[in-house]
Amino acid sequence: MKSVTLLFTALLLIAFQPPVFADRYAGLSYSQSRIGFQDSANVGGIYAKLGQSWSENIQAELRLGGGLENDDGFGELGIESLIGTYFRIGLEADDFYPHLLLGYTQIDLETRFGSTGSDSDISYGLGTDYEFKEDWKINLEYIVYYDKDNVDVKSLSLGFSYDF
Fold first, then answer.
1. Across the strands, what pairs with 123?
2. Which of 41, 64, 99, 133 is the one with CA 20 to 30 A from 74?
């Protein structure tokens, strides 16, 4: 139920924007995440994002993703799925767009025993976009998706996006 509410809220945030700021973008990123719990596991993942500019400096974004691989060194721990809504606040500087990210993520973790743990938390991070060609950007971000109850999920990602 939380996922449905989160998805519905994100779609409303993106859909009902003033027409003045109709810039939308979509992208795909590869992430290397560290899952910390007693010990730590490093896992790869991929996520898609859809966003819309509210102003020159504020964007709303929806992300959906999951793990590509599990860490065999720590009981095959991995990310089963991730869904989140975020605000990106930044400042355009030539072809660069450094930004801060603040949002809410629901994350499902999996283990080799087939059990999953699902929880949500406030997420935060920082990153930058670089426009290498008109409407095309490369981005690099560091995000703390989850950090509570002695478990944390931190991610470094590299990806691209297209403005439409």
1. 103
2. 64
Q: What is the mean pLDDT of the chain?
A: 85
* Bridge partners, 36 (sequence order): 40, 152
Which letter does DSSP use for residue 71 in this model? B
73-76 contacts at long range (C-beta below 8 A, 24 or more positions apart): 73/41, 74/39, 74/40, 74/41, 75/41, 75/111, 75/112, 75/113, 76/110, 76/111, 76/112
- Please choose, from the candidates 161, 160, 153, the residue with its C-alpha nearest in 3D space to the C-alpha of residue 42: 153
CATH topology classification for 2-163: Porin (2.40.160)
- Provide the 3-class DSSP secondary structure of residue 68: coil
CA–CA gap between residue 29 and residue 34 (Å, rounded): 16
Measure Cα distances from 134 to 95, 124, 161, 164 in Å. Answer: 10, 28, 11, 11
Question: What pLDDT sits at residue 74?
Answer: 52
The pLDDT, as a whole number, for residue 129 is 97
Domain definitions of the chain by residue range:
2-163
